[in-house]
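User: Sequence in, structure out. Go.
Assistant: Echoing your sequence, followed by the structure tokens.
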Amino acid sequence: MNAVIVSDLHIGSRYFLCQGFGRFLGNVPEDYELILNGDIIDNPYAKLKPSHQRIMDLIEQVSCSQKIVWVQGNHDNGYIPKGFGKVHFKRLHHIEDSLLIAHGDDFDGIMPRNRTFIKAFKMMHNLRVRLGAKPVHVAKYAKKWAPFYKVLRKNVMMNAVNCAIENGYKSVICGHTHYPEDRVFRGVRYINTGAWTEFPAFYLLVTAYEMTLKTIDDSFTVL
């Protein structure tokens, strides 16, 4: 089966690469399954500005002609819009019996245990922006704290790989950390598809023969 996988769009966030994703979505072949791997909405309770609502409308429209799977993430928080085309909403997804797809928040043993620190960190980041610092997504700012970020990434990867091994999958695909990577750990291929809140944005192209982590370019050609 052929598929295109992306994660962490954060539609509604000021950092969502709205125009780029719209062009990208229009280039996904109809015979490919499109898998939205979590944190597609930044805040399910906030009203979207028109340009971001158009992306939601486009996803709904595309779902009527090709299969779209929306894997729930922590930001989505169970969000399922009423009458949303033919989009399939899931907590986990898999391709055949070899590839597990999960957003990654269920594998995160770091942030849930440090909610007070995370809240303070976000407040500090927002204060920096208000004081004139360059506005970037909080995840991009967190990458400057390399030791902490490395622990988070490794924790998600290890737990994801353990889950894959326990359930007989050869590969596992996650988002959540906003850090694109493709590596093998304990004999399992772990791929993270990064985020659409900063350039370059990434997507995973899955065919019957290979999986390739790709970046978008100016043409936004998927294949």
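User: And one key feature?
Assistant: The chain has one domain: 3-215.
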